[in-house]
Design brief:
By secondary structure, this protein is of the alpha/beta class. It has four domains: 138 residues, 3-Layer(aba) Sandwich (Alpha-D-Glucose-1,6-Bisphosphate, Chain A, domain 3); 100 residues, 3-Layer(aba) Sandwich (Alpha-D-Glucose-1,6-Bisphosphate, Chain A, domain 3), CATH 3.40.120.10; 105 residues, Alpha-D-Glucose-1,6-Bisphosphate, subunit A, domain 3 (Alpha-D-Glucose-1,6-Bisphosphate, Chain A, domain 3, 3-Layer(aba) Sandwich), CATH 3.40.120; 82 residues, Alpha-D-phosphohexomutase, C-terminal domain (TATA-Binding Protein). The protein has 14 helices and 23 strands. Strands 1, 2, 3, 4, 5, 6 and 7 form a seven-stranded mixed beta sheet that branches. Strands 18, 19, 20, 21, 22 and 23 form a six-stranded antiparallel beta sheet that branches. The protein has a five-stranded mixed beta sheet with strand order 9-8-10-11-12, with helices on both faces. The longest helix has 15 residues. The protein is globular. It starts with 12 loop residues before the first strand and ends with a helix. It comes from Amycolatopsis eburnea. Belongs to the phosphohexose mutase family. Keywords: Isomerase, Magnesium, Metal-binding, Phosphoprotein. One of its GO terms (biological process) is carbohydrate metabolic process.
C-alpha cells in the first residue's frame, strides 16, 4: 500500500512531478474524487495553470473522473479563482491543477465541492487519500464524457459587476504577473476599464524565468517597485503563480500591508452591507478589527488558513475575510478567495478620489509590524513553552493559544508565535506602536527561541 501522506497536504495535493506525482497516480486521484462527490454532482469542472506538466496531469485526472461515470467540464488555462468562479456559477465540484508559487518541478491539485466549497483533510481529502492508497474500485457502467468550456469572459464580467470602476479617474497601473496566470486573466478583466496597464512578465511560463511568483517575498517585487517609479504609475499590483493572491505597492513603490488592504476592502464591503461580519486571521494588524468596528461591522478573529476562514464565513454569514498572506475572501464570490477582486476594490477606491494611494492607505495602516520571521528549531513545543513562561508571568500580559501562542502586552504591542505544520520552524509576527518597539520585542522573543 503506498503512503501518500507526503503529498496529500492539509488543503491540497502537492508534490514533485515525476517523483511524487505522475499521470497514473493523478488518474487515481480523479477516480477517488469522483467516488467522493458522485452522490452530489453529475460532473466535475477542471482547470489548470501554465506549468508544462499541468495539461497532461489535468487530462489524466479527467480520465479518472470519467472512468467512474461522471462527466468533465474542462475550462483549460485558468487562475485558481477562475476555477472557483466556474465551480460557483456552474454549481459543480472542481479541480485546479497548480502548485501556486512553488518552483517549476512541483505541481498539485486544489479540490472543491459545488459552489467552491473547499475540500481539505477533514472534508474529504483524507478519504480520497485512503481510497487511492487502498486501490480505487472499478466501475462497470458507462464512462463519462469531456466537454470544453471557456469561462474567462464570464469570470471577468462577474468581477466587474461586483466593483464599479465606471466613475474612476484614469489610472496607470503596473501589473507583475510573474509569468503566472495573471497574464491570462488581467487583459480580459481590465478590458474597457479606465486603467492603463503597464504589463510585466505576462508571458505564461511555468519555469518562472524572471522571479518566483510569490509576491510576499520582498525580493520578488523589486522589479515591480522599480517599474512603478520609472513610469510614474499610480500603483503596482503583483499576482502569485495561480493568481489567487495579489500584493499592492503604492505610487512610491512602497509595499502596502495586506492588513491595510483587508481594512480598506472591509470598509467598502460594509458600505454595501452595513453591520456585516468581517473575518480576519489572528496575525492581521489589530487595526483591522478596530477599523471594522468603527465602521459598524462585526470583526471575528480566526486561526490562520483558508479552511478556517471559509468555515467561519459560512458559520457567521460574513461578507468578507482577509489574511495577512494576501488571501481575500468574498461572500459574493462563494466565500472563495480572489486576489483579482481585491485588486479591483483597491483601484476603485483609488480612482474615486484625487489623492495618491499612499495617502489613501495610510488611514488603514495604524501600527508598525515585523512581517513574518522564521526560525529553525529542534523542539517547537519546548521553545514555545519557554516564551510562554517568560511572558505569561508578567503583570498585565494576556496569552491565548487559538493558533500557536499570541501574547498581548500592556500598551498595545502583541506577537504571535506559530509552529509550521511541514517544517521545523517557528513563525513570529510582531506588532507595536512604532518600528523601535517592534524591533525590541522581536529581539527579546528571538533571544529565547534561538538560544
Amino acid at each position: 500500500m503506498p503512503d501518500l501522506s507526503g503529498i496529500v497536504k492539509a488543503y491540497d495535493i502537492r508534490g514533485v512531478v515525476g517523483e511524487q506525482l505522475d499521470a497514473d497516480l493523478v488518474r487515481d486521484f480523479g477516480a477517488a474524487f469522483a467516488l467522493l462527490i458522485k452522490p452530489e454532482a453529475p460532473s466535475v469542472v477542471i482547470g489548470h495553470d501554465m506549468r508544462d506538466s499541468s495539461p497532461g496531469l489535468a487530462a489524466a485526472f479527467a480520465e479518472g473522473v470519467t472512468s467512474q461515470g461522471l462527466d468533465v467540464v474542462s475550462i483549460g488555462l485558468a487562475s485558481t479563482d477562475q476555477l472557483y468562479f466556474a465551480s460557483g456559477s456552474l454549481n459543480l465540484p472542481g479541480a485546479m491543477f497548480t502548485a501556486s508559487h512553488n518552483p517549476a518541478k512541483y505541481n498539485g491539485i486544489k479540490l472543491c465541492r459545488a459552489g467552491a466549497s473547499p475540500v481539505g483533510q477533514d472534508t474529504g481529502l483524507a478519504e480520497i487519500r485512503d481510497t487511492v492508497e487502498q486501490g480505487v474500485p472499478g466501475f462497470e457502467g458507462q464512462r463519462g464524457s469531456v466537454t470544453e468550456r471557456d469561462v474567462l469572459a464570464d469570470y471577468a464580467a462577474y468581477l466587474r459587476n461586483l466593483v464599479d470602476l465606471s466613475g474612476s479617474r484614469p489610472l496607470k497601473i503596473v501589473v507583475d504577473a510573474g509569468n503566472g496566470m495573471g497574464g491570462h486573466t488581467v487583459p480580459t478583466v481590465f478590458a474597457g476599464l479606465p486603467i492603463d496597464i503597464v504589463p510585466m512578465y505576462f508571458e505564461l511560463d511555468g519555469s518562472f524565468p524572471n522571479h518566483e511568483a510569490n509576491p510576499l517575498d520582498p525580493k520578488n517585487i523589486v522589479d515591480l517597485q522599480a517599474k512603478v517609479r520609472e513610469v510614474g504609475a499610480d500603483a503596482g499590483v503583483a499576482f502569485d503563480g495561480d493568481a489567487d493572491r495579489c500584493f499592492i505597492v503604492d505610487e512610491r513603490g512602497e509595499p502596502v500591508s495586506p492588513s491595510a488592504i483587508t481594512a480598506l476592502v472591509a470598509v467598502r464591503e460594509l458600505a454595501k452591507d452595513p453591520g456585516g461580519t468581517i473575518i480576519h486571521n489572528l496575525i492581521t494588524s489589530k487595526g483591522v478589527p478596530e477599523i471594522v468596528a468603527e465602521h459598524g461591522g462585526k470583526p471575528v478573529r480566526t486561526r490562520v488558513g483558508h479552511s478556517f476562514i471559509k468555515a467561519e464565513m459560512a458559520k457567521t454569514g460574513a461578507i468578507f475575510g482577509g489574511e495577512h498572506s494576501a488571501h481575500y475572501y468574498f461572500r459574493d464570490f462563494w466565500r472563495a478567495d480572489t486576489g483579482m477582486l481585491a485588486a479591483l476594490h483597491v483601484l476603485a477606491a483609488l480612482g474615486e478620489q484625487s489623492g495618491p494611494l499612499s495617502e489613501l492607505t495610510s488611514a488603514y495602516s495604524r501600527y508598525a509590524a515585523s512581517g513574518e520571521i522564521n526560525s529553525t528549531v529542534d523542539d517547537q513545543v519546548a521553545k514555545m513553552m519557554a516564551v510562554k513562561d517568560t511572558f505569561g508571568t508578567r503583570s498585565g500580559v494576556e496569552v491565548d493559544e487559538l493558533d500557536g501562542l499570541t501574547v498581548q502586552l500592556p500598551g498595545g504591542a502583541w506577537f504571535n508565535l506559530r509552529p509550521s505544520n511541514t517544517e521545523p520552524l517557528l513563525r513570529l509576527n510582531v506588532e507595536a506602536a512604532n518600528a523601535e518597539a517592534v524591533q525590541g520585542l522581536v529581539d527579546e522573543v528571538l533571544a529565547i527561541i534561538r538560544n
